[in-house]
Amino acid sequence: MSYIIAMYNLPTHSKLTIAPLVAIFNKTTASYKYFWFLSILQIYSHKRQKLISFEDIVYHMLANAWYIVHYFHLSFGNCDILYETIIQLANKYKLPINQDSNTLVKLLKQNLSSNDKKALCYKLTKYVPYHFLSPWLKNMNRKDIILASQNFEHDCLYSIEKQADAYYINLNQKWCDYLLDNYKILQDFCYWNLCLYLQARNPNVPNIANKLIRPVNRQSLKHQKDFWNLYLKHYGSIKCIYTEKIITQDYELDHFIPWSFVAHNLNWNLIPADPNINSSKNNKLPNLDKYLKSLVKLQHQAIQVVYECDPKNKILEDYRSLNENITAIVRMNNADFYALYYKNMLPLFQIAQNQGFSVWDN
Q: Is the pLDDT of residue 6 over 60?
């Protein structure tokens, strides 16, 4: 996602006033508007249909928020029911937590009971379809917004219509080309504002910007493996801090604090581990009382060995987020190095635990 875009300078259009679109996320107290607009963009860009049911938008809203809730455990705020709704649906229908959004939309359509579908549509579209239009249709109640939208007053983005027992939006033809031509920019605009919203409600959680969508592929850990292989070459073996199994070649790099919380691959949080441990540890926090001392001891030895063998090794730069002076880290005694790690790890552990990450012990 290209967050460096100047988000308040959306592309202009010779026949459209863009200011209301820029203002859609003003005075936002819940997450619904972000997922509402994002879902409309996705559905229209994929299907090219102007008439979109509230129900279809709701499925996409849930799918877009699914990974944020289940994998990253980010809070949406006290006024928001989307988080709890997703948890309840996953538990009730045994839906997978690690799935792409298109598959999730299909699963939701196929599995939800008709009563749950109606209840979801009512809860998640009670206000957002109408409030979303407020930058175009100001100071109106719901009834007046519906009537004004059906005439596309002030060139509002869509009209709200009822057909049989279902509600729909009907995109304004004047906006259709603009939405398609600027899809990526508008998507980034939406994610940028969602990022700001979530950061305000998760102030101590790192790397919010990288926790908005499910990554297609995680970054390679090749350079980090080279770092640890250099250590292995020097010492010959590593004792897994979780299983105490002796590792000589076959190992996996484990994120001590889960990647789904830190959302980075910095080497100070990586540790060679028995390949069989990942299936049980998975997305959980290790017991600090049991494992932190072993982690710190191994990290201290490794950074000293690599610094001695290859002082310009790029992975050493990862440790600057613990202490700006790499040489000072290398020369620390065991007690000071442990204190440095404890000072950095404990807040991460506590925040992650408060976010809902469970504690694991082998």
A: no
Domain contains 112? yes
Q: pLDDT tier at 8 (50, 70, 90 boundaries)?
A: low
How many distinct structural domains can be found in the chain? Answer: 2
Q: Which domain holds residue 278?
A: 222-360
Residue that terminates a domain, selected from 211, 244, 268: 211
Whether residue 71 is contained in a domain is answered as yes
Same domain, 43 and 92: yes
pTM given for the model: 0.80
pLDDT at site 5: 40
Task: Annotate 103-123 with b (16+ C-beta within 10 A) or e (fewer).
Answer: ebbebbeeebeeeeeeebbee
